[in-house]
Amino acid sequence: MGSYYLPHLKELEAEAIFVIREVVSQFERPALLFSGGKDSIVLSHLAKKAFYPAKIPFPLIHIDTGHNFPETIEFRDWLIGNLSVQLIVGSVQESIDKGRVREETGVNASRNALQTVTLLDTLEAFKIDAAMGGARRDEEKARAKERFFSHRDEFGQWDPKNQRPELWNLFNGKKHHGEHFRIFPISNWTEMDVWQYIKEENIALPSLYFSHERDCVVRDEVILAKSEYLPLKEGERVQRLVVRYRTCGDMPITGAVLSNADTLELIIEEVATTRTTERGTRADDKRGETAMEDRKKAGYF
Amino acid sequence: MSIQENNQLLRFTTAGSVDDGKSTLIGRLLYDSKSIFEDQIEAVKTSSEKKGFDYVDLSLLTDGLRSEREQGITIDVAYRYFATPKRKFIIADTPGHIQYTRNMVTGASTANLAIILIDARKGLLEQTHRHSFIASLLKIPHVVVCVNKMDLVDYSEEVYNRIVADYQAFSSKLDIKDVQFVPISALNGDNVVARSENMDWYEGATLLYHLEHVHIASDFNHIDCRFPVQMVIRPHTLGFQDFRGYAGRVDGGIFKPGDEVKVLPSGFTSKIKSIELDGKSIVEAYAPMSVTMTLQDEIDISRGDMIVRPNNQPNVEQDLEVMVCWMNQKTLQSRTKVIVKHTTKECQAMVKDIQYSVDVNTLHRIEGITEIGMNDIARISLRTAQPLFFDSYRRNRQTGSLILIDPNTNETVGAGMIV
Ligand SMILES: Nc1nc2c(ncn2[C@@H]2O[C@H](COP(=O)(O)OP(=O)(O)OP(=O)(O)O)[C@@H](O)[C@H]2O)c(=O)[nH]1
Ligand SMILES: [Mg+2]
């Protein structure tokens, strides 16, 4: 008789699959928020495993800021075909055109905050009552406080001081009309777990995550990709650098890291020795000490 | 961060009274085990300076909410992660304040180990008692008592020994199997990761050593086969026309293809045809694996049913005795109606009787009460609208636990452990 314990990645996988199946059992119209980043790719992979041989029984929602890396969109469309699931796209550009939101201006302008409105509008339009996301608690200190089943009021807001107790694996998804839940099946995974799992399961990723040459601009010590969405400041110059991305957000706010890691093995080694958090390269989190909490309260991912 | 692929996961929680140093200790553990990134420690240094502290306030690493940082207390559980070459750890740093006991219970419900902190200057307080009692009710198998702030009592062995004796006197009345003691200074790091140079009288291990070596393999029940069905998978696609899989998580025992099984509540028996995940077959399924099971016979099975072995069945009853932690402002009385969630089953229930509540300081029973309030711990009799398939919590933490939900507000109002 062997010793009956699960290695940690298997335990995390089992937990995530349990949560995803609970969502489908407890809610009428669940959806998976798909950003195109590695965490939501892992989440789609887990969803596929959870229901096999049936197809994933919910749509993927992509909130398209219009500022995506082309590689992200290309990968998204490939994955949708591969999983044969429905894709819903919520467009920030449309929200701007309809006058639902106003575009930020200036050189540091970003569409990050605008996404919240598009997201909430999309959830409402499709009557989504449970939106799963790939957020992890190790990413950020406000995320470290989030439940697996996170309740949102009818305005889509999070009340971090008054969260429901969440005991054992008994998830309470009960809600009143108009309220919804955000659900985070990979809450307990770290960046390292995600990379090891990607390797173990041989999961395909957008090329952005691997080392490549790119035209970049270095602004406030953050390496940003040169793009039409990034107006240059005076004195800034474009340099060709060998980089890769640790997270995939919008092009004008996601920082790259200098890296030669072009295989999963090398990336895992790099993650093991790195001394900064992955979100440390994101300009959206640098807008104040509680920037994430403030955005989450308003209904952000 | 270090790379390990097949390590055990230890889930632990902090407990103890307000300001005993729980969050500081977690900050220290993360910092000394080199699990803190430069941008995180820079941010904490800046915040500490802004607050006018002349030291780095490591509690800011876990107290992430605006109100927590303003008030210098923990309000809700923070989950943190770290790894050493020996193990992976999931930490739930919980609040000490009585008002937020529900969040402490949240963090503690999934833990294999609890670190209970005691301020060396103050000794055992009511919250130390309450949290220790909750830890024992939750059957957290291992407890490490850290006598903290030793730097403020001149690293005195007498002070430490007195607190250890006090705690032992109290915990002998509790049902905790494994209790260890460590004198520490969370602020300075004594005996947290590295041995203290200030307490050569202490010959035991450091806290991290305990965390790395405590034996946790037997914390799941591998004897009584329990498989609550979460959902039925029917693909209706070509190639899988007749596939009917039962998806769920094993809550106990070891299931193998070919095993004879019984389905509750119908009582039908069959044999396991296959156990799989993602089309790959699994030879043995045990807790806490998520799998899909198929049976040899077509039986009507739905969510909330349970697959077990014919010769080892759980209790199937509508009347249960439950120890409950009440977590809501609205009090619980006899005849209060609630919704019960137990494994994958949900049903209406009524509180038939409140047997007694427990005085957490003396552990004495208070009988003859008619209602229980927020943060009270009581034994109640519950009558459910349908039979539940359960074991005692002592025997199985999964099939022995339930939550109570207020049918009007939908809030989770109670945590129940079946006696
Ligand atoms: N001198 C000294 N101070 C300490 C030590 N540990 C913690 N403190 C201080 O005690 C205070 C409270 O520490 P926290 O870590 O916030 O306490 P806590 O137990 O997390 O409190 P709650 O979460 O609100 O229950 C802070 O000012 C810490 O700096 C220690 O070992 N020595
Ligand atoms: Mg604290």
TrEMBL record, chain A:
Keyword terms of this UniProt record: ATP-binding, Nucleotide-binding, Nucleotidyltransferase, Transferase
Source superkingdom: Bacteria
Domain Phosphoadenosine phosphosulphate reductase: 30-255
InterPro entries: PAPS_reduct_dom, Rossmann-like_a/b/a_fold, SO4_adenylTrfase_ssu, Sulfate_adenylyltrnsfr_sub2
UniProt-annotated stretches for the region Disordered: 277-301
Entry-linked Gene3D superfamilies: HUPs (3.40.50.620)
GO MF assignments: sulfate adenylyltransferase (ATP) activity
Pfam families, sorted: PAPS_reduct
EC number of this enzyme: 2.7.7.4
Keyword ATP-binding among record annotations: yes
NCBIfam families: CysD, PRK05253.1, PRK12563.1
PANTHER family xrefs: SULFATE ADENYLYLTRANSFERASE SUBUNIT 2
Family note: Belongs to the PAPS reductase family. CysD subfamily.
Protein name: Sulfate adenylyltransferase subunit 2
From TrEMBL, chain B:
Enzyme Commission numbers on file: 2.7.7.4
Transferase among keywords: yes
CDD domains in the record: CysN_ATPS (cd04166), CysN_NodQ_II (cd03695), CysN_NoDQ_III (cd04095)
Ranges of residues in domain Tr-type G: 7-220
Protein's name according to its UniProt entry: sulfate adenylyltransferase
Tagged with keyword Nucleotidyltransferase: yes
Species, as recorded: Algoriphagus aestuariicola
Keywords, comma-separated and alphabetical: ATP-binding, GTP-binding, Nucleotide-binding, Nucleotidyltransferase, Transferase
PROSITE patterns associated with the record: G_TR_1 (PS00301), G_TR_2 (PS51722)
